[in-house]
Every structure is written in structure tokens, then in C-alpha cells.
Amino acid sequence: MAKKMSCLSRWKVIKFEVQCVRQKTVKQDRKVLLKKNLILFENVDMIEPDQIRWDRIRYQRNNQSYRMLMNICYLVLGSLLLSTDKGETKLAVFLDERSMHSLYEKFILEYFRYHHPEYKANPDTIPWNIDDGMIDFLPGMVTDITLKSAGKVLIIDAKYYGNTMQTQYDVNSIHSGNLYQIFAYVKNLDRNQTGNVAGMLRYAKTQEQITPNNKYSMDGNTIWVRTLDLNLPFPQIAEQLEKIAGDYFGSGKFDRTGIGTDRRCKGIIEYGI
Fold it and tell me: Which of 53, 54, 195, 226 holds its CA 20 to 30 A away from the CA of 76?
């Protein structure tokens, strides 16, 4: 039986991660913050990336809080470019788009799990609403984030692209494949046509001059296309996420309690994205 990764080993991974991220092109104030945090790891030894046994990581009730943090470490360390000089490590300037998309998606999911357990945030599998029972070769429909409250459902599809809009013949429009996908999710889940299922495409905001900020009513269901500005202090990022719930579930009030100290979600934005 494979030996589980100890708590101390996990702290070694995190220390190595912080050391590497400091070499990245990040804002000076964040470098200062990272340096201060390293003091907390004074008694933790360093570990080389090839010594990390990711397959031995196990999560239980008492260490679940490590899961998201270790996922971030895995993604970022996966982008490391190791030099031929022993002991010298260089971090790639960027994570590939696929890794960033996964990180972005998990950030939104973990935010709602942490701050709004009442919404039961999870990725859900949606069955096809078919008439004759034939499902052969139909692709699976798995949401990024599904929120549920008081008989209403909001499906969020997180998108991290270099361009939030597609352009054809100098005309900007929403990515057609993304829109078809979220529409299919909503309509197949709302098989009784209650109108109590809505969808949202949530793009990471870019520096483009034109970005989507739209609300559509499609065949009795609401579809939003919005952006999330990650280039803001974490409390303001949190306010944008809170507005998702407020717009649909009518929660109305934004509770700032714990937002400033939410290290699990905050760390993803400041050091991962």
C-alpha cells in the first residue's frame, strides 16, 4: 500500500511553490507579501519537484482544506521550466490556456462552496431530454458549476480565453459554441419548461475594448453572458461573484465577513491567476 503524503510534506510543496512564484513576473507588492509569508516556513525544509509523490495525496475530513491549494501547486509546478544547472529553477511566464481554464473554473466553484454552502455548488451531469430512449453516441453534458436554491438552478460555464468574443468579417459576437452549449444545458435540465433554470457564461475579462455584458431571454429561460475582472483586489472580485447569486437568487446582501481572510480562494487569484 502506498504511503500517504504527510502534512509536513504538503508544507514542503507549498514552500517550494512560493519560492518559485517569487521568480515570476508579479507585482512588487505581491513579491513583498510572498517574502513575508516565507517566514512562516522557516522550519520547513525544501523539496525538489521530482520528489513530490502526487499519487500519494489523500484527502479526509480533517485535511479537505488542502485540496484546492494542492491542486494549484500541481498546476503551477506543471508549468515549471527546469534549467540544466542544479538547484536553479525557472518558472514559465505563463501557464498554458488549458491549465488556466481549469484553475479559473475551480476558483469560482470553490468560492461558492466556501462562502455559500447553501447553494450546493457542484459540477452536475445533465441527462439528455430525449423522446425515444436512444442515447447512443450522445456526448456527456457535465456543468462546470451548478448552484441550486429554493427550486431554482443556475448553471455557470466558466471560460478563460485570450479573446472573450469571436470576430468574423469585422463583426464581434459571443462564441457560438459556448452559447449553444449553455443553451443545451439549460433546456435539457428544464425539461418541464418551468423557467426555473438559468445559465451563465462567465468569461475571465481581458483587455479587449468590447466585452460581453448581456442578459437574454431564450424560450422562457434566462441566459447571462458576463465577464469577471480578475485584475482587482480580492474583495472586489468577490463582489462580482456575489452579484451572480444576487441577480438570480435574489440574495441581495453582500456579506463581507471572511472575504478579506479567505486565503484558500484569494491565493488562487493572487498567485495562481
Answer: 226
pLDDT of the residue at 48: 73
Half-sphere CA count of 140, side-chain side, radius 13 A: 6
Q: What is the mean pLDDT of each run of 10 residues along the chain (273 residues)?
A: 54 71 67 79 75 72 72 65 44 57 88 92 94 87 95 94 83 90 96 95 86 91 93 90 87 51 49 41
Q: What is the pLDDT of residue 81?
A: 40
Asked if 197 and 239 count as a contact pair (C-beta separation under 8 A), the reply is: no
Give the single-character DSSP code of 146. E
Taking the alpha carbons of 94, 96, 99, 103 in that order, is the dihedral positive or negative? positive
H/E segment holding residue 203: strand 197-204
pTM for this model (two decimals) = 0.65
Q: Are 169 and 141 in contact (CB under 8 A)?
A: no
CA 116 – CA 110 distance, rounded (Å)? 10
| Residue 114: closest CA among 271, 269, 257, 270 | 257
C-alpha distances (whole Å) from 37 to each of 7, 40, 224 are 18, 6, 39
User: Residue 224: beta bridge partners?
Assistant: 200, 215
Which residues neighbour 148 within 8 Å (Cβ) at sequence distance 6 or greater?
A: 119, 120, 154
| Amino acid at residue number 173 | S
